[in-house]
Amino acid sequence: QAEIARESEQAAKESLAIAEKEQAVAHATAHFLQNVFSSPNDEQGTRVWTVEAMLDQAADRLEKNTDMTEEITRNLYLVLSFTYRSLEQFEQMEHLARKSAELSEKIYGKDHTISLTTWETVGQAHYMGGESEKAIEILEEAVARARKHLSPEEMKYWTIQFSLASAYAKAGRMEEAISLTRTVIVGLEPFDAPVEKTEILSGLGSYLGRDKQWEEAIACLESIAEERRTGALAISRRSWVAERTLMEAYLLTGQSEKAVE
User: Fold this and answer.
1) Over the stretch 132-152, which tens digit does the pLDDT of each residue have?
2) For helices 214-230 and 194-210, what crossing angle results, to 10°?
């Protein structure tokens, strides 16, 4: 029992150290961004800055900064890449996500969850920017590594695979997209992850519709709409998209009365 107690104490200390390190990285990330956005470089004296221009300045400062740890730099690259995604600036998203992925591999190793999910972001940037085949190449490697080194009990094991399915769909490879998305849906059943499940189920409905498998597409999308109406599913952008896709499916299959409802 003394040995078990010592092991428990050591595990608690390790967990605390990880939490403190993550908190320090988050604090440093917020501090860097606060400094950038509170003192932008206004070379032309216009005092008018766009979000994109300020992001460009943040990225430029980050690439020139040599004072921060690799963990903080890696995290900042990823945060900025996500912000470029919201602006649909996919080339910059890819550039910064790739820098984050390369640092992740250096810090954690190629097969760590953080490294694999960061390469997932690189792949997403490619298919969002219209480079589906490049995305597939990156994501197939990430999925192969995830299947080998992650556990099916980790949600990332499944969500990385859905990103690959999305890339297949973007490339018009609907059979592969649908098959892989079905696998992911089954794999996610034990998880309490309504937002992720809605996104993936909505994706499946969309892929089935594009493949003209209307009956199953409608059934899939109706399940999302019903859960949203009964309050079992929180209202989100993805749930609204699913309902809009369902309406389009009704119209395309001659069920205009349901679309009106």
Assistant:
1) 999 999 999 999 999 999 999
2) 150
